[in-house]
Design a protein that fits this description.
By secondary structure, the protein is mainly α. The protein has a single domain, classed as MetI-like (MetI-like fold), CATH 1.10.3720. 73% of the residues lie in helices and 2% in strands. The protein is built from 9 helices and 2 strands, in the order H-E-E-H-H-H-H-H-H-H-H. Strands 1-2 form a two-stranded antiparallel ribbon. A hairpin with a 2-residue loop joins strand 1 and strand 2. Helix 6 crosses helix 7. The longest helix is centred in the N-terminal third of the chain and has 41 residues. It is elongated.
Length: 292
């Protein structure tokens, strides 16, 4: 016999199942658009970052050029700002994906190892993480980039070194939460080796929070790469990047505001979208959401 409480609980579950896909879709639209433009955009349109058109310099957004419209206007040497943003998106996507992958794998492995092993292993890994956290991440990235020089590979290495800590702390917390659960103890009693118990029973339980951290970190990594490029410590001048485009127009904000403002707006939208998507993903993967 179905009670009123059961009916209310079923209604909450039904509303949650309906709301979750819509919320994820709404948060993911800007993220998917960014990824599509980064992958497909450079294949559809051609852009030569060396080529200049001085007769078309400092044209405002929407100006009709030869065979195309300068959606974001042109810069001080006549280059299309929108095409710079389009090609810079590929660099941002590459840096974001590879950095999060390296930092996520390394940090998650160390964090889960610390949570499962405990004792001296836990102490050594967490003290290293504490030392890393004591140093300002962006200042450390600036120091490393200035030492090893500007390049996309060096940016990835630098940002991965500064981002592994958050994955390690989240991975350790998730491992601590499940390592003494009944199903893990049962696997040990049945003769499972420590490695098998960790890989089969503990690691899958840690993936949800780590996935949320990876999604949220993606936007922060893109912002950090743009910041380094803005300072001349990120991608080299031969590689279009959002930070370089914004830096090119910083002295022309009074006369040609679009050179820095429009790429900066795109950067802000992408960064915020990844953050919102990470929060939405956390709400979906959080089992406590069903209890509310």
């Amino acid at each position: 016999m179905t009670t009123v409480a059961d009916g209310r609980h079923a209604g909450r579950l039904a509303r949650l199942r309906i709301a979750v896909p819509r919320g994820i879709l709404l948060a993911a639209l800007p993220v998917l658009l960014f990824c599509l433009l980064a992958v497909i955009g450079p294949l559809v349109v051609s852009y030569d970052h060396v080529h200049t058109e001085l007769l078309e310099r400092l044209k405002p957004p929407g100006t009709q050029l030869a065979g195309r419209i300068a959606v974001f206007g042109t810069d001080q040497v006549g280059r299309d700002v929108f095409l710079q943003v389009l090609y810079g998106a590929r660099v941002s996507l590459l840096v974001g994906f590879v950095t999060v992958l390296i930092a996520g794998v390394a940090g998650s492995t160390l964090g889960i190892l610390a949570g499962v092993a405990g004792g001296r292993t836990d102490t050594v890994i967490m003290r290293a993480a504490d030392i890393q956290l004591a140093l300002p991440a962006f200042l450390l990235a600036i120091l490393a980039a200035s030492v090893i020089g500007p390049s996309v590979t060096n940016v990835i290495i630098t940002l991965a070194v500064t981002r592994w800590v958050i994955f390690a702390r989240v991975g350790r917390g998730a491992a601590l939460a499940v390592r003494d659960r009944e199903f893990v103890d049962s696997a040990r009693i049945l003769g499972g080796s420590p490695l098998r118990v960790t890989l089969v029973h503990i690691v899958p339980s840690c993936l949800a929070p780590l996935l949320v951290v990876a999604t949220s970190s993606f936007g922060l990594v893109i912002l950090a790469e743009a910041s380094l490029s803005f300072l001349g410590l990120g991608a080299p001048a031969t590689v279009p990047s959002w930070g370089q485009t914004i830096a090119n127009g910083r002295d022309l904000l009074g006369t040609a505001w679009w050179i820095s403002t429009l790429p900066g707006f795109v950067l802000a939208v992408v960064t915020v979208s990844f953050g919102i998507f990470g929060d939405s993903l956390r709400d979906v993967l959080d089992p406590r959401a069903l209890a509310r």
